[in-house]
Amino acid sequence: MTATPPSHTAPATLSRTLSWPHLVALGVGSIVGTGILTLIGVGADRAGPAVLLSFAIAGGICALAALAYAELAAMMPAAGSAYSYSHRVLGPTLGWIVGWSLILEYSLVVSTVAVGWSGYAAPLLEAAGLPAALTRGPELGGIANLPAVFIIAVVAALLAFGTHESARINTVLVVVKILTLSLFVIVALPAFDATHLSPFMPFGFGKHMGPDGVERGVMAAAAIIFFAFYGFDAISTAAEETREPGRDLVIGILGSLAICTLVYVLVAAAAIGARPFADFADSPEPLALILRQMGQGAVARVVAVAAVIALPTVLLGFLYGQSRIFLAMARDGFLPAGLARLSPRGTPLRVTWMTAVIVAVLAGVLPISDIAALANAGTLIAFAAVGVCLVTLRRREPDAVRPFRVPGGIAVGCGAVAGCLYLFVSLPTKTLLACLAWNVLGALVLLIQRRRALRQGLS
Fold first, then answer.
1. Three-state secondary-structure class, residue 407
2. CA distance linking residue 365 with residue 388, whole number of Å
3. Assigned domain for 186 exists
4. What DSSP letter does each residue of 251-281 carry, written as one string?
5. Mind telling me which residue stretches traverse the membrane in this protein (predicted)?
6. Is the entire prediction scored with pTM above 0.70?
7. Rounded to whole angstroms, how far apart are CA atoms 120 and 299?
């Protein structure tokens, strides 16, 4: 038995205003951000110079998942992304589990990026007189990360104003971000020193606990750095607002991932080659720090300012995606039906602000590495489910119309599932326990929703 909406009237539909350039910009804006601007320091701390290998492994697994997403998004252009695919292909219960995991992913991604943005903005704000205690959470010795809360509010207001307007601003900021990373590569790459790559794998390949209580290794880093690659899934949540979903979604998903992979390889190589990894490991602003250590203070300020300007594109992409997933779940009766109402401008106003409040609270108090790891747990569950959906549909409906058909679809789907499971078990142990607790809570919520639906059916 599944939850059903209290009303049987057809839900209001979102306006189709986006084309493939908007989707590529949305994808690049969502993908390129905290992962390369901030988490490269966390990855270097976990894997040393072999963080380059961690990027390659995480990117390869994401490529398989992206291919699966592209086929399913073209077949089922619905606003709910992996939740909608799983709900249709695997059934309501598994669909709920995936939707619950996506809530975890998107909420924590927005929080992580907001904290990463604050890492670049805090030095500028503190120089202007803002107390340091108000730029970091309690675990880092502060009271609350107010800059992170502020930027979430700004992006939520922009999304509430309108999707098409948000997409235009996003496109401009994406260009700023790519130019900034290009500037870093142009300045840092000539200083490449091969001795910084030795020893290449100081912490080994598999996950293991270090003497300081931190789990290290290439796969431990890959499980965190995986955060740097996803974001293309936010494109699939725009399906209902895309003019030609069969074509535009595929171009958006695969095009944005290809662009971002190239950018990441260049930036990571330039960073590792320019300075010993220990110099910037676990820094909240590693790229700016590397430039300052190279004596490029003026360029470092440009990168920091540009990061402050451009990182909100990631917030926009994921806050957008989260609100659309909530919208789809509300339409299916898994969340209060009132959240599915649209504003006169055609945007899900209530669910956008509800999402913003949740993620702002998380961003205000939690450190970035813990948030990113837990976000990855939810993402890996969703990506694995998409791989299962691809394989299931290929076997169940081999002759179904597929506007985009992935070559070797069953192998791609199985590879995505296997890769995601490997990264999942490579996450920190405390993250796996937190993910288990989140899913136990999700099971309780589902049970409550089903009992409520049963009572409504009997009344």
1. coil
2. 36
3. yes
4. HHHHHHHHHHHHHHHHHHHHHHHHS-GGGTT
5. 23-44, 50-72, 93-120, 140-160, 172-192, 217-237, 249-278, 298-321, 351-368, 374-393, 405-425, 431-448
6. yes
7. 14
Do 231 and 218 meet the contact criterion of CB atoms below 8 Å apart? no
Number of folded domains that form the chain: 1
Domain limits for position 321: 20-454
The CATH number linked to 261 is 1.20.1740.10
3 is a domain residue? no
Phi, psi (degrees; rounded to nearest 5) at 366: -105, 150
CA distance 297 to 291: 6
Query: Would you tell me how many other CB atoms lie within 10 Å of the CB of residue 256?
Result: 27
Q: Is the pLDDT of residue 6 over 50?
A: no
For the segment 101-149, what is each residue's pLDDT rounded down to a tens digit? 888 777 777 777 777 777 777 777 777 777 878 777 666 667 778 888 8
- Candidates 84, 241, 248; CA nearest to 162 is 241
Please spell the DSSP secondary structure of 363-385, one letter per residue. Answer: HHHS-HHHHHHHHHHHHHHHHHH
CA-nearest of 2, 107, 139 to 318 is 107
Residue 13, domain member (yes or no): no
Instruction: Report the alpha-carbon distance of residue 203 to residue 216 in Å, rounded.
Output: 6
- Retrieve residue 79's tokens: 């606003």
Query: Burial of 53 by CB count in 10 Å (0-12 exposed, 13-18 middle, 19+ buried)?
Result: middle
CB 137 within 8 A of CB 366: yes
Candidates 28, 36, 96, 37; CA nearest to 443 is 96
Structure tokens at 367: 């450190």
Query: Is position 181 within any domain?
Result: yes
Taking the CA atoms of the chain, what radius of gyration do you get in angstroms? 21
Q: How far is CA 140 from the centre of its chain?
A: 23
Segment 187-244, tens digit of pLDDT: 998 888 889 888 889 888 887 777 777 788 888 888 877 777 777 776 776 777 777 8
What span, in angstroms and rounded, lies between the C-alpha atoms of 145 and 122? 9
Q: What is the DSSP string of 229-244?
A: TTTTHHHHTTGGGBSS
Which sign does the torsion angle of CA 29, 409, 102, 338 carry? positive
How open is the CA angle 31-36-42, to the nearest 5 degrees?
125
Helices (H), ranges, 48-131: 51-75, 82-89, 92-127
Residue 94: beta bridge partners?
none
